[in-house]
Amino acid sequence: MPRLFVALDLPDALAGAFADLREDAPDAPGLSYTDPGDAHVTVKFLGDTPEDDVDEAVDALERAVDAADAGPFPVEVAGLGAFPDEEYIRVVWVGIDEGAEELVRLHEAVERETVALGFDPEEHEFTPHVTLARMSDARGKEDVRRFLRETDPELGRFEASELRLKASELDRDGPTYRTVARFPL
What we know:
There is one protein chain. The radius of gyration is 16 Å and the shape is globular. The protein has 185 residues and is of the alpha+beta class. Helix 2 crosses helix 3 (100-116). The strands form 2 sheets. It has a 5-stranded antiparallel β-sheet with strand order 2-6-5-4-7, with helices on one face. Strands 3-1-8-9 form a 4-stranded antiparallel β-sheet. The chain has helices spanning 12-24, 51-68, 100-116, 141-150, and strands spanning 3-9, 31-33, 40-48, 73-84, 89-96, 129-135, 154-160, 162-171, 174-184. The chain is built from 4 helices and 9 strands; from the N terminus they run E-H-E-E-H-E-E-H-E-H-E-E-E. The model has no long low-confidence stretch (mean pLDDT 95). Hydrolyzes RNA 2',3'-cyclic phosphodiester to an RNA 2'-phosphomonoester. Belongs to the 2H phosphoesterase superfamily. ThpR family. The active site is at 40 (proton donor), 129 (proton acceptor).
């Protein structure tokens, strides 16, 4: 049963800037960093999905992309933040400046179509972002908070031209992703 999510992948051209930001980030206990080649904006997490339901999900995503009518659009990847907040850090993220409105519109359309199929609705407001790191240990929190306050990265710009339905396979070395379907914008 594949573990699925809908994503906007960062282009290879931004992987170097993402890797440079990782190098500048603290080496704090419990902080695990995203591989620059896997960096993406998760538009919707679908979770474990029976093989029999994958085709229906693909059809729903095609409808959602058509309904959102976002077309190709520019995206600027810049700024830092943390979820749920800087007091209790679980995720350190890089923000989306330009292109955030289009990503919200795509998320809302994807949410409508996938919830109608029986996928779980989102529990939190959608904030377009790229996960830089996940934090499982609070011992390095002060180093991470200082990094968040003192760093204001601008990773670059690109044109978003497609969403992807991706499958994630987890093993002890971290996630491995494969593209299941592509949806031109």
